[in-house]
């Protein structure tokens, strides 16, 4: 930061730093600093990259959960391991496997998920699937 301010007067700094509430672990952080000439100080502010990524993920999942196709269609999002992130048109806040969100036929959904997962691992494959409604 001192080098950035000394050479350019202001700029971005990319480094690792501990979070006040996270013990001794260092996290990736990006800060902006600027020289305050009247007192020969520099002032800065920064964000932890993982905090920004988590907020972007939360915002995207919320937007995706609002997408509808006609009166009964929606988008679902899950991780490759089956963890549901968006299911039945809502952001999933508690641990839930995708197939557990389909109460009437979870085993059929689990098999379908396994097929989709295998297809997703193939380069160039486009997946389009319709699941049975609850």
Distance between the termini: 56 Å
Strand share of the residues? 25-35%
Taking the sheet with the most strands, its summary is:
3 strands, antiparallel
Low-confidence parts? 130-134
Q: Which structural class is indicated by helix and strand composition?
A: alpha+beta
What spatial order of strands do you see in the largest sheet?
1-2-3
Overall body shape: elongated
Helix fraction bin: 25-40%
Report Rg: 23 Å
Q: What's the SSE pattern?
A: HEEEHEEEEEH
Any idea how many domains? 2
Oligomer: single chain
- Average of the residue pLDDT scores: 85
Question: Based on DSSP secondary structure assignment, what is the total number of beta strands?
Answer: 8
Instruction: Count up the helices.
Output: 3
Please tell me about this protein's structure.
With about 130 residues, this protein is of the alpha+beta class. It folds into 2 domains: about 1-50, no CATH class; about 65-120, no CATH class. Helix content is about 30%, strand content about 30%. The chain is built from 3 helices and 8 strands, in the order αβββαβββββα. It has a 3-stranded antiparallel β-sheet with strand order 1-2-3. The protein has a 3-stranded antiparallel β-sheet with strand order 6-7-8, covered by helices on one side. The chain has a two-stranded antiparallel sheet with strand order 4-5. The termini are far apart.
């Amino acid at each position: 930061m001192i080098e950035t301010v000394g050479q350019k007067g202001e700029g971005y700094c990319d480094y690792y730093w501990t979070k006040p509430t996270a013990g001794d672990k260092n996290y990736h952080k990006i800060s902006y600093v600027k020289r305050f000439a009247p007192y020969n100080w520099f002032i800065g502010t920064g964000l932890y990259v993982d905090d920004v990524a988590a907020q972007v993920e939360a915002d995207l999942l919320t937007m995706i959960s609002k997408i509808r196709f006609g009166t009964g269609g929606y988008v679902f999002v899950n991780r490759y391991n089956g963890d549901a992130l968006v299911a039945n048109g809502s952001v999933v806040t508690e641990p839930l496997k995708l197939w557990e969100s389909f109460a009437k036929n979870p085993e059929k959904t689990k098999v379908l998920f396994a097929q989709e997962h295998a297809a997703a691992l193939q380069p160039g494959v486009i997946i389009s699937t319709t699941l049975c409604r609850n």
